[in-house]
Amino acid sequence: MPSKQPFARRIVIAFTLMTLIVSGLFSLGIVGIVHSIEEHLVSEELDRELNTILQDIGQGLRPRLDSSTQFFATTAPEFAIPLQFSKTQPGFTEVVNGDEAFYVYTRNVGNERYLLVQEQHEFEAREQALFNVVLAGFLLTIAGAWLLGRMMAQKVMAPVSRLAQQVQHRDQLHSSAPALAPEYADDEIGHLASAFDSTLGQLRRSLEREQLFTSDVSHELRTPLMIIGTSCELLDAAPLGAREKEQVARIARAAAEMRDLVQTFLTLARSQPEEASLAGATTLASVAAEQYRRWGPAMAEKGLGFELLEEGTDAQRYNHTLLSTVMSNLLRNALHYTDAGWVHLTLEPDGFRVEDSGMGIPSGQQERIFEPFVRGERARGEGLGLGLSLVKRICTHQGWSIGVSDLAPGGSCFRVVLGQSPNQQL
């Protein structure tokens, strides 16, 4: 699993661990070499001195010893071996007893045992001082490695942090934003900046093509829609039969709906996502009354009970095109997915609900239903699954929130909260 530590911290950790291993091995090597040399040299010295003492004893002479050296043997009571040295093995041994420290050299000759003991208090103190210096050097090396690692990490990460800030705080999607790569050396950071410039250029061109396409299509559709609307008005004034007038009315409604959608697409294409929500001059109640009149005939034709209910008053002003598009798509969705029963449009103090007694939406699909080209398992109509996606996009653009929940015993409830920071639950 990749490390979750920041990259700068990983540099410091790696640098410190490397120093810890190298310095630790070096310190242990010093301690081992000191012990090895100490044992080798002292063993040779004590071995030569013991040979001299045994020669003196063989000649009937008393052993010649300095003040820090003692001789013990099993051959005479006066040289009896003390208890603390009685279990030493042949050869060189160090014996530490509290604050006292001794070098012991043991030799077995037949059944006899000879020991040469030399005090090493002063040498042990110097050796301990050397080990303390080695330990202090080891700790200082680790601390120095940590500080040096931090300095190196800051220096290494400085261009990366700078690039991240430039990417985060600049309006990079603006066509006039300068390229980043020329500001960096021809190294890994420069290559990263160059890759970002290349990818960003492709994204800019893609967004420009999308905006131009949306704007061009929306603009060009206005003329034929206007012609259709005018023609419907002329036909409505002509002496037609009831069936023909009904068809003309349906054409007029479809043209009005398409005109609203074109205006919605054009508005979203012209405004940047980071801009504030688009203000308006219409109220929630007026849009709801308009949509009630618009969808009432279609609901009645399908045999559904359609009611406009009011649980509160919202005096705020909203963008007519965007709010009517949201409400219209939700009512159309309820109409398509409700075979019998009712559809309610309920106004609240901070938004509205669209409820129906239809087939409902499985809980596993309630989150995905707002994604583009996603339709329910029992899809109705000839849509492509873009209606609810458009609703979600408008709500996000305006700072509104939308959610869906189930109704008992069956049906769905779509709730839209109109506000900048909605936090209410369905």
TrEMBL record:
EC number(s) per entry: 2.7.13.3
One Pfam family named in its UniProt record: HisKA
Keyword Kinase on entry: yes
Residue ranges annotated for the HAMP domain, each copy included: 154-208
Cell location: Membrane
TM region positions: 12-37, 129-148
Annotated protein name in UniProt: histidine kinase
Organism: Stutzerimonas azotifigens
